[in-house]
Amino acid sequence: MKALQIGERARDAILSGKYDQVRVNLPNGDMVGHTGDMKATIVGYEAVDKAVKILPPVAAEGTHIHYDCDDAEVHGNSLRCTYKCKQLVKAELLENYENQERKIMELTSELDSLKTSFDAIGLERKSLLEQVKRSEQEAAASAGREKALLQKYKADLDRSEERFRVQLNRCVDLEVKLQQELRLRAEAELKADAASSQFQDLKLSSAKNTEKLKKEVAYLEERARRMQKDAQYALLKTEAKTSAEKSKVQYAESEIENLKAQCEDLQLLLSKCMDEKRTLSQQLANGTSDSQSSQNKEMEVVIKHLRDELKSFESDVAEARKMKQFHANVNLLKEKLESERLRAERAEAALEDLVNCDEQVKSLNEELQAWKSLIDELPDVERREDIPIKMRELQRELLAATAEVGKLTAKAAELHSELEKEEARRNTTQDNARVFKEAIGDIDAENNRLKRQIELLKKEVRGLKSVLSSYDEEEALFMSQKSNEVIQSSDSRGRTKEERIQVLEALLQDIQREGDLLRTELASAELKLGRGDYDPSCTKVVHMVENLDANSEKKVLLAEIQRLQEKIKALEEETFSSASRNAASRNAELSVLRDQVSSLEKREARYKKVFAEKISVFRQACCLLFGYSVEMSEEQQLSTGMTVTLFTLQSIYAQSDDESIVFQFESNHMNLLANEYVSSPEISRMVRFNLLQSSPVFPNHPKFNEKKLSQEFLTHENHVTCL
């Protein structure tokens, strides 16, 4: 109900004079804070006041106006409110309204401050993320540097190890030589002790020894001359052998060429035979096609075909005879091939001996050149006598090298220790890097969690904006406290992140410093190795006492003898192995040739079989097509002694073997021979009418006419009965 209506009704009730008391029900003032609508109650009170003031004084004095109110705490147990109560309620409502507006302003200011703080937190988060990325990049760069350093260290270590191995090998060789020298020195000392006791005897025998040495030198020179003469004689002998073997080889090659020519002739014959066989097969195929197409031709064409076939049969017989002769020639050729193979083996053995002799000569020349090159390569050596002097100098250099090797071994041990330290440092740096990566992962997780919290806070701010008008001070304070706690926690986390980043940067700087130190140490070690510095306290110098000229010459001669013996053994082994290889290769070639001959024989037998099968098929086809079987035979004439070919034609429907017609083939002419069957009246009539110009292909025989064939199939354009 509106306030004006309440006032008008109250005025009407008072003016009517019916009521002693007028009660106006208004809402409780305490509900204003809950509903938020204070203006309606204020307007109601003002309207009632105006209505009461407008009333006349009589009516106003006679009536009492009471305001009913639900506020029992203010007025006690009575439900009546006075004007003062109304004014108090109004004042309280106004104060509450002002307080609520103040609170709203404070909350809006706090929201603005929270927004600014959130923006600051976002900027800090971005800066932290950038710092984290920078730290990751620095960590990756440090890892790359570490990898590069490790690779350099490994390469340096490999180089140093290779150098160390080379030096160790040299040291081993030098130690072996030193042991030999020490042994010789011990023997020399023993000899010197014995010589001190027999010094006087040696003075007398020194002259004798010098003479003996001169004789031995002369003997050795004569022996060397003899060796040279023997070598020259061996060279001449080998040259003579090689010339003889070359002549044998040339003769064998000529024989091989002849055999090849014979083989080529045989191959040509085989190719001709194959061509003839192919022509025969083609003729047979053409014969079958011609027989099918020549069913409607005249009898003269058939006789010509038969004559041509007889000629081909004669040529086949001649070819078969030639093949028999060819087989006999093949066996002879096989025997010749075996004999030539034996000759070739002998020639190859002689060639191998020649090659071995040449190799021996070459090896001797190479040895002489090696000695000459050795003398040329050795500096300050022009004669054979200068070699022991040079050996002494080399021994001294060897001792100096052993001293350097000792220093290098010590330095290598130091390098190994330094490498172990570097590996330990590398492991520590790897552990630190792992810790750094784990810290980065924790930072990322915390950043993600902060992002989520910021999003949640934004959602809560939106809810606060929608619900700020209805929430109390306590809820607003609680939210502000909560936001402050979140901000403080985020600030504390950001500080911890910055501290961790600083710690990691310090670790990276330490790692870089350690890498620089290691580089400087490696550079110093490499300079020392390059200079060849050594510690004189750890080295020993050994001075040789004995002169080793005679011993060196003896060793050289013994080494030469051993080398010659080894070369002789190697040459013997090579000759044996080459002979075995050649024999194996020849056996393989012979087996291949035998396989080829067997394959050719099999192919020839197969061709013969196929040819016979085709001939039989052709004869059967001719028999079925023409009604007569043709058989060829040879007969020798008594008068002339010449062989004559006979062809017997027998009908399919003949009852006995005597019912046949015999033809004699002479100089491309066919002559009919008389017999009982031909002299019969029916056959003589057929011969008289049909066989004067053609062969009796299908005579008008009563037995043949018994077959019930169609008249169209039996007629011909020339009135010749045929299929």
UniProtKB/TrEMBL annotation:
Subcellular location: Nucleus
One Gene Ontology term of the molecular function aspect: metal ion binding
Keywords of this entry: Cell cycle, Cell division, Coiled coil, Mitosis, Nucleus
Main localization (coarse): nucleus
Coiled coil regions, renumbered to chain: 83-117, 143-574
Transmembrane segments: none
Entry similarity comment: Belongs to the MAD1 family.
Name assigned to this protein: Metalloenzyme domain-containing protein
Native source species: Adiantum capillus-veneris (Maidenhair fern)
